[in-house]
Amino acid sequence: MRKRDPIKTYDARWEVSDFGDGEVLRLFEATFGYARLIEVDTLVFARDARLGCARVMEIGIDAAVKAGFRVLACFDPISTPLSYFIAMQTARDYPNTMGLSITASHNPRQYIGIKYTVPGVVAIGYDCGPMGGLTKVKELYHDKSYVQTYGEGGTLRIIGHPAEEYIQYTMKLAGIKPGSLNGMKLVLDTFNGSAGPELYQALTRCGAEVYPIRLVPNGDFPTGSPNPTSQNKMDPALQLAIQKNADLVLGIDGDGDRIVFGDQQGIFSAGFVMIPILKSILEKEKQTVRYKILYDPKVNPLALARWTEQNTEPILFRNGHSQIKGHMKAIGALAGAEESGHFYHKLPIGELQVSGENSLYTVLLFLQAIHNQKEILHQVRSMQDQIYTSGEFNYFYPDDQIRDSALNAIIQFFETQNAELTTKSEDGIELEGTVVYKGVRKMNGIITLEKEWYSAYVRTATNEKGIIRSYISSSDAKYGEKIKSGIIQLLANEFGGVEVE
Predict the structure, then answer these.
(1) Which pTM value belongs to this model?
(2) With 0-12 CB in 10 A as exposed, 13-18 as middle and 19+ as buried, what is 351?
(3) Which CATH code is given to the segment(s) 388-500?
């Protein structure tokens, strides 16, 4: 029988009804045991607006103070990137700081969880971080011989709402002054998550005319899961953009670290969004080296080819927020992007350099490039209209043997097309799936495309049993639909899979 615990690949996450107070306390005890092993002496607690946050935070803070840690806590609902900023500020005075952000990101309202950073404001996940990161936390959670030691000396200091410092820091980092975005009209949909007030305050200060939707933080999430990348979720924002004749549409998830960008015609792929972002970043960089930029297997090749035209070298890496940030730091990458709407940057604060998320910085860099050269927006729209993307389509199998047979059949399908298949990055790191390219060439860091090309990423689900996930991008819709139909013929018809979300 599998032992139950709330630890997942990238963080801890569970439905509120799944684990009681005792099990949540045990998670914190295991966390603090891990913290001691890596010499943490300071803990920073933050939370978003999610309904389950308050109880989890109370259990964690009480246990942390009793365990003798120096504890700093922000009780106001804030975004996860802002919680990272607090950890960055704290780390200047207390280098051995661990950050604990209580959130469940874009999940439905009944979920809750914790995102972790360790000294250096380094994100950890399963098999990722000092001593294995959350792998070690899980080990301690199940170790019956491990007992949390309690002592004296713990302290608690409450942090006032840090949005103003965050906004000032980020505007300075982006090189944007108040009023710099005068004339821009934006629709901002924050899905009743915690990032809304931060973004609205900053964007209006920068001079943009902002039309907000679902701006007030509300952990009930009355219109459903706070995920802007889900199908049709951004439709209200797109409709308002047409009504107001807005230039751009922005959507951000419940904890503020997943962003989508679009115009009146629809949402852009994250790979294309990176083109103006990179332009803004590189204009500030003094060196002439070819900068490394990480991307996940779903970023389309046309976008990657345009990245290389901006003196960057795209580096393929697997999905995983903690893992990507760790690899960015390891190889000195300047930025990174996942097609799921996650963007990563090298963020300095004092002498500390952090590889992580700052959603306001991402947004300001994008808007800055568009404001300075409006034709860039037309170029992004033209590229978006040119290519085909399938979105992720998923099929379920009650038997893992059938699932694996179906997956092998898909691999054989691509092999018959003489496509290039890989399961590892150029650094030899497992991609946790198969990446497929046809008509795509990469030589000396430069990507070129044939007239007809496609890319694909197929894998078994990380956290759900019996599911195959597939994603395709291609040079045009007819070609892409042909490839997708061939895959679905195998998944659904030959192996009897059932399509699921």
Answers:
(1) 0.95
(2) exposed
(3) 3.30.310.50
